[in-house]
Amino acid sequence: MSTWTASMFKRRNPALRGQPTAVVQYNGWKGGGLIAVSYEARGFGVKRSMRGDEAKRVCPGINLVQVPVARGKADLNLYRSAGAEVVAILASKGKCERASIDEVYLDLTDAANEMVLQAPPDSPEGIFMEAAKSNILGLPADASEKEKNVRAWLCQSEADYQDKLLACGAIIVAQLRVRVLEETQFTCSAGIAHNKMLAKLVSGMHKPAQQTVVPSSSVQDLLASLPVKKMKQLGGKLGSSLQDDLGVETIGDLLSFTEEKLQEQYGVNTGTWLWKTARGISGEEVEDRLLPKSHGCGKTFPGPRALKSKAGWINYVKN
């Protein structure tokens, strides 16, 4: 699910809708540090790594909104409440794992199974508009025929059962995203796949406010050219070791190594995990958890003022 930090302030102040907006940290040095940027502002080249003053130079019309403050730290209550609204809607259809304030995993296996058995999509004309906008990996890239191809894929009667489950999952997710927008005014992006790893990889592939589906037949193409560092848990030392010691640059490169070779290099558990990851296999289950494991907030380094005060210390709050 895409971040709703900037969207939350637009809901509180409708005048910001459609306007380039960024949320800034609460110290004022060089206009404050940006922690969230709306898609309108990103179109001008504004990035989260910028300070407020730099953002204004890049996008003179940008609206900078201050993070609420309580006891000298960022007040996260607004974000918690906004997240709870969205999660309540998503959890109505399946097991819901809240990974962070604005990221959720949803297990729709039971709901998709029920739809396949009782009310499967059987006509392209019967697929409602939001589901027909899905991005399905492996379909022809002709934009003029996209909706037609998506509708046909979602209701193909000759598909194997796994793809039928994905099709029903895509329809359910589209319905949920529409509900979230109508009831909270927040937009969501989503990835739909047979496991958490693949869903996470594609959830941000077609932002904003779109969903991407990974059929089983497209898994290898997705992973073949994916840089090692883009995979969760491979952004640090393990990913660097794969590059330096084995010459692995993409996840697809791992297919050249046997499970035994990877176990020999990195141990039994890690070696097996790498071997499975290269094949898009993940047994990680969605946990039934409606609260995120932690909320974090930090004070951005305020420059020279930090030499005269304690404002440069990092603060982290964990629930």
TrEMBL record:
Keyword Disulfide bond: no
Keyword Lyase: no
Catalytic activity: DNA(n) + a 2'-deoxyribonucleoside 5'-triphosphate = DNA(n+1) + diphosphate
Cofactors named for this entry: Mn(2+); Mg(2+)
Coiled coil: none
Keywords: DNA damage, DNA repair, Magnesium, Metal-binding, Nucleotidyltransferase, Nucleus, Transferase
Gene Ontology BP terms: DNA damage tolerance; DNA repair; response to UV
Enzyme class label: transferase
Cellular-component GO terms for this entry: nucleus
Protein name: DNA polymerase eta
Pfam families to which the protein is assigned, alphabetical: IMS, POLH-Rev1_HhH
